[in-house]
Design a protein that fits this description.
four-stranded antiparallel sheet; 259 residues; single chain; disordered N terminus
Length: 259
């Protein structure tokens, strides 16, 4: 139970439970806060420490709990104009961080992997959902790991996500870097914009309701495109541009070296 749970109204507790109620998002939210990978993490002086703050800038798109990784130049989490990995596909379609966490932990190019514990909602949904519109995570980086990557699903989409791939880390203690990130389409699923094809937490997090939704990929919707800039919500079915839409950038990330 979070520190604020006892103070929530019954309705807000129901919203909070629904928002992480699917298997995929519950798994993401209950991962250990820090998981460690392999060779890149060693070093006589000990690992460096970074504070990473991510802010949701949208009006209508909640993010899944964040996934962060420090790594060297041989690792890529995603790359625009390239095919999405299975791990990225699971994040973008189902909000499921586990396959990508496992893949990163298995890479010798990766130093640390950290996941957040809650969704990150638009500022206009903070009071209603009791979830934050920003998250701050601490992550270490070992010898040779001078890059940071981050990914989160845009929950009210079929296969939309945001993030950052291979950002150079600040070199000196006290130095910071800030970047804005855009919305991407994983290219792995048709954008039906129907609630039945979208993860269920979309509805309570944004305050609308409809079909139950799903946390599983549907082979009938599969596409074989490359990662590309997301074209936004068109209003084809249940999603509404004036409710679920956005303009880029969708997020701000600030990274500060603290040790």
């Amino acid at each position: 139970m979070s520190p604020n749970s006892r103070n929530r109204s019954p309705r807000k507790r129901r919203l909070a439970a629904a928002a992480v109620g699917t298997t995929a998002l519950m798994a993401a939210a209950t991962l250990p806060p820090t998981t460690t990978a392999n060779a890149a993490q060693s070093g006589a002086a000990g690992p460096r420490m970074y504070r990473v703050t991510i802010v949701n800038l949208t009006d209508g798109q909640p993010f899944t709990p964040v996934l962060l990784a420090t790594h060297n130049r041989r690792a890529d989490v995603f790359e625009v104009r390239e095919k999405a990995s299975k791990g990225v596909q699971e994040v973008a379609e189902n909000g499921n961080l586990m396959p990508l966490v496992d893949a990163l932990k298995g890479s010798r190019a990766v130093s640390r992997v950290v996941t957040g514990g809650t969704p990150v909602v638009p500022e206009n949904r903070v009071d209603e959902t009791s979830f934050p519109n920003a998250t701050t995570q601490m992550i270490k980086a070992g010898r040779g790991a001078w890059r940071l990557s981050w990914i989160s699903m845009l929950i009210c989409t079929n296969d939309g996500f945001t993030g950052l791939d291979s950002m150079g880390l600040p070199r000196r203690v006290g130095d910071s870097k800030t970047r804005m990130t855009n919305a991407y389409d994983a290219g792995t699923e048709r954008n039906t914009e129907a609630f039945k094809d979208i993860v269920p937490p979309c509805q309570p997090l944004i305050g609308v309701s409809g079909d139950a939704g799903t946390g599983m990929s549907n082979p009938d919707l599969a596409t074989d495109q490359r990662i590309h800039h997301h074209r936004g919500i068109k209003g084809k079915a249940d999603l509404m541009p004036d409710v679920h839409g956005w303009t880029d950038p969708v997020a701000q990330i600030t990274v500060t070296r603290v040790r």
